[in-house]
């Protein structure tokens, strides 16, 4: 188990990488940031299928938050003024709205600014990747 929080994202997706880099520059949370392609997913208690599907935030205790809740935890971890929107994202109905918006963006990340056609492909079909096995 890690001794600090870990943010896991899709390093092969240009939109995801750009978004995470932007958030890290602005928020400066005290956590480790790593693409799932280089993370020890088993040690984090995460499946490859889940890591391919959504942003993940793993607490030091091993609790895994995905998608919009990962964003909420990241904002809470950043503290200061960022904790307010982070806290709101954990409460209904904002949590439900955030989940829907996250799924919409994640499903269409290849169409988002900075996204590429490779972002729409399953990870094992992207150029330069090897099949899982």
Question: Numbering strands along the chain, what is their spatial order in the largest sheet?
Answer: 2-1-3-4
Please indicate the percent range of residues in DSSP E strands (runs of 2 or more).
5-15%
End-to-end gap: 24 Å
What is the typical, i.e. mean, pLDDT? 88
Q: Which residues form runs of ≥5 with pLDDT under 50?
A: none
Number of strands: 4
What attributes does this structure have?
alpha+beta, 4-stranded mixed β-sheet, globular, 133 residues
Task: Describe the protein's architecture and organization.
The chain has 6 helices and 4 strands. It is an alpha+beta fold. Helix content is 41%, strand content 11%. Strands 2-1-3-4 form a 4-stranded mixed β-sheet. The model has no long low-confidence stretch (mean pLDDT 88). It has helices at residues 14-27, 41-44, 48-53, 68-78, 83-88, 94-107, and strands at residues 6-9, 32-35, 56-58, 64-66.
């Amino acid at each position: 188990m890690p001794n600090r929080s870990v943010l896991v994202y899709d390093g092969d997706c240009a939109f995801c990488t750009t978004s995470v880099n932007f958030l890290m520059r602005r928020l400066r949370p005290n956590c480790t940031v790593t693409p799932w392609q280089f993370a020890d997913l088993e040690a984090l208690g995460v499946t490859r299928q889940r890591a391919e599907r959504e942003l993940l935030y793993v607490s030091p205790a091993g609790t895994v938050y995905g998608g919009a809740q990962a964003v909420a935890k990241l904002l809470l971890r950043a503290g200061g003024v960022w904790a307010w929107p982070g806290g709101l994202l954990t409460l209904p109905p904002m949590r439900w709205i955030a989940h829907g918006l996250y799924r919409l963006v994640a499903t269409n990340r290849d169409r988002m600014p900075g996204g590429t056609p490779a972002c729409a492909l399953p990870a094992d079909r992207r150029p330069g990747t090897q099949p899982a096995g």
